[in-house]
Amino acid sequence: MDAATLSLVALAIAIVVSCTIRLHVGFLAIALAWIVGVYVADMSAREVMAGFPTRLFLTLAGVTLLFSQAQANGTLDLIAQKAVRLCRGNVGLMPMMFFALSFVLSSIGPGSIASTALMAPMGMAVAGQVGIPAFWMAVMIGHGGNAAALSPFAPAGIIVNGVMEGIGLGGHELANYLNNAMAHIVVVFSAYLLFGGWKLLSRRHDGALAVPSADGSGSAPPSEFGRNHWLTVGVIGVLLTAVVVLNVDVGLGAFACAVVLALLKAGDESEAVNRMPWRVIMMVCGVTVLISVLDETGGLALFTRILAGISTPDTVTAIMAFTTGFISIYSSTSGVVLPAFLPTVPDLAQQLGDVNPLAIASSMNIGAHLVDVSALSTLGALCMAAAPKHEDSRKLFNNLMIWGLSMTLVGSAICWLFFTVLEVGLSY
Asked: Taking the model in full, what pTM does it have?
């Protein structure tokens, strides 16, 4: 068996392991990259280690450090608690408000997992008090965060944009973000309004709402923003402005902002470091090392030929959305699936002919993210963990599992419609 085939087998092993057991797939991927690269492909250890994505690591670490500080000092919590009260008792608007809150929080930097972790205790508590089905609150919170997952400031967006820049598809950050957001909004709000949302809009809850803190403690939020909250909001605002207007590197800028908050004693960097998603960061970095070995050995080209063999120009968007979606139900979307599939896009488009590479990449991005509120995903698990005690946990699990599986088909259909039939959203 040649090096190209063995490297592809190594990738398949990593994907299967990520779907079946709790072994850290990033560490496994590095070990496999070393074995295949050094002992099969005759690469040096230095060449294998050169595949470690240093820039991506620093960007993810900087952004997650800053927003872990904002979460630890209660700034994001306070913003969310104040926004919930804007619904003024309209029961049907409450799930929509939580979608919007998750979307906005995810967009500005924390990403889908952090925004869902913040919103789930509040949303599920409110749902239990006013009689909103826990399933719909989970769907709205999870998809709200995931709709903004490809924000240029969010971890998943940083990963995807970095991979796409590496394959010659850079400069599409806005398209990636808006395409994913558009797909989630169309799917989730259509389903919500068709299957019960209209009835909820006619209901009101006139009593007081006990909106818990993000940790589910039920403690009352501060009545006003304090010094640390205002400093945090100001520093984040400066960073976002600098990135957009001055083209400042978001990762390095985030490190500087985190240092400023620590020096001003507005954020505890030690607690923030403990809150950072190190598992996900090392997962994507490890898989990227393995992908670089695949590229060196020809395994990536072999993977592309296999994908091209099951696709046509008219079906590739649907097939890629379904494939990435199905694997993402059981595996990490940003840590495993997209770093593995996106590098195949340019050659896949070339082999099929007359296919926009951005259409294929967008289909992979959307298909992989639409399924992420299944019961097996982190987002679904966070919502189930926060569900009211009176909620039937088995029923909620089954409903979220059915929802996630159905999104493989829905994602496939919507990507085919958007990017093959209508060809919308490919340039903003």
From this structure: 0.82
